[in-house]
Fold each of these.
Amino acid sequence: MKYIVAIIQPDKVDEVKRALEEANVQLMTVSNVLGRGRQKGITEVYRGAKEMQDMLKKVKIEIAVNEDFVEPAITALMKGARTGEIGDGKIFVLDLHEVVRIRTGERDGNAIG
């Protein structure tokens, strides 16, 4: 089992969701977050003055998957989120040691669904 965390541009959420659904990955948690990477922020002009925004709005998608869905999920995330520009985001794949479904007590692969 793996826990996949993706940080993407907010305007790519719908495309990523569609790509994940096509890969038969339905379960996910989505959060609005702030972050900074190589993009190092942007400069905006507000009321005639330049302001540096170094913490940018991003979206974090978290997915728990069984081994068979790791590569399809990564491929779908890349397909939906990639623009080819700096700031497209990152995908982190972590080992998931245990999962328990609270309602039924099911564990591990069965608890993921």
Amino acid sequence: MILNSITIANKEILPLIEGGKGINISTGLTSGLWANCGGAGTFSGVNPDFYDENGNYVKPIFNGKSRQERQKELIDYGIRGCLDQAKIAHEQSNGNGLVFMNILWEQGGAQELLTNVLERAKGTIKAISCGAGMPFKLAEICAKNKVFYNPIISSARALQLLWKRSYCKFKEWIGAVIYEDPWLAGGHNGLSNTDDPLTPEKPMSRLLEIRKFMNEVGLKSVPIIVAGGIWWLSEWLDYIDNKELGPIGFQFGTRPMVTQESPLAMEVKQKLLNVEKGGVKLQKFSPTGLYSSAVENKFLKELENQLTRQIPFVEIQDKGIGFDIPVELTANKKTVYINQGDKDRLNKFINDGYTSILKTPSNTLLFVNNERYNNIMTGMRDCVGCLSSCLFSAWTQREGMTIQPDPRSFCIQKSLQNISHTNDAENNLLFSGQIVYRFKEDPFYKNGTFIPTIKELFEQIKTGY
């Protein structure tokens, strides 16, 4: 298959990009090797691993007594990790590859981390890919450090807002615009309030809208990178060399997770290789409040199941409407009241072992077992401020904003650290694109018995299949 090159960040490359996957899944090693093959590699700047003077992984330890103190530690660890990963990527690409760093604008301390990393990683990071929020300050920070930026968006409207507020002032530093399909991409998805999560749209019409706007504002030569739902390039022939779409590239996020160099444990890779069609769920359990796509496993099923164990309550007894059955909350021993009609459900939950009772922001009581209760309370107590605002722990770094903690969510920091550093593929969040089931169908993987190197995968993708 013949692939014409595209130019990003003043460098001509093949239109094949490794997507950034945090926490720790896209590393300096994987991104550097991908870049060395002739594409663009992306390492994750979301809580990346860092190392001691002997090159050994250092597990972060948080000693701060307050969340603010622990977030400062997290940012410092993140800066160290980004610098380590950037150095490794630069070396693995032989100093000549195109390496991006991916951050989430809604990660805790994103601006502080980005500013510090770019000031100290001169020449190793060529562009910053950034989504999960509206990163208006991204362009200014990157331009100041003479680094390109690749906004990740899911609609022309999002790009228009970013452009009008900020990007129009720094347009010479836009390396690429990454269109992340909000229905097919793995991880957090950019579904807007006007998008129906159950009714996917074809990407072509949305891409044409994006390109039309880009042409209008002088970005005709800037590539659009399609992310989400990409497997075989032969299925995208209508997009390749399409004059209406202009220069275009393709981002692969799911497939590089199953390579020899991927840091995931073999058990996690095997889980991905054996996902059935329909085995990835688009759900809204994330403490970010965003939709996200993840493999359905024991962890996700428990989050789904606990939604069935909720009962409405009121704070003050009201016999007039039947809310006069007292229930004691586990955490603070406060008494609230449920309706008489829910008494049988209350007794059933208790008898089934769900004896710990927590209240939610939806004015419901959530019934969980003791193990889940302890995990919830520990996660809330140990919050390190990994997000700018967390619906689970009620942490926020935004002035004047208050949030009620929601026990129906989870500590995303701990779960993603676990999936990247242990072999437990069942009891942690496992992000993946919707088409992960194609590992089982693709003869390249030999029925789950073959795991390629990054170079082998890159060369296979170039064939179109």
Amino acid sequence: MRTVFHLTTGDPDEQARGLSSVANLLADESVDVDGVAVVANADAVRMFLSGATNADRVRKLADRGVGFRACSNSLQRADILPGRLLDAVEVVPSGVGELTRLQSEGYAYVRL
């Protein structure tokens, strides 16, 4: 099973809860996990900044194979240059487009 998590919130506590859900899925031995992605748009792209509150959690999940994607449109609106993001984060042209693409590839969608 492949799952994509969708984050839009700029609240670090809500982001932490979302990242906990990702970790919980990976730890659930009753689910055969083939791939996990986290797509952030709107204010959630700020969680991918190197000094963000949850940056270490993002790094640890990336080390476990989770793919992280940031919406280019949201980065531009927030005036964030891609070079300020964690190395594990891929910038995609559109968060909504990436969610659509992943769902068309069979990813289950979870909104956080």
Amino acid sequence: MGFEEMKTIDVRTVDPETLVDVTGIVIDESLSKEERKAEYLRQVKNPYCFRVGDVVVKNVYSNDGVTLQERFEQFARTL
């Protein structure tokens, strides 16, 4: 399955049992940043749709250079 196909998975119809539970992913922190990314992708199989326990998560990525932490800080300031 290619990345474009991974993006289109519908969380309402996907079988949760076919998704990786990210709580079981372990990454060797001694690896380089690029190696850690590659290892995460290898283990998660689909970075756009996965499980956290029993919860199915659909992830969307942006190319705007803003980190997840910065997004959360922006969100928190709007509350």
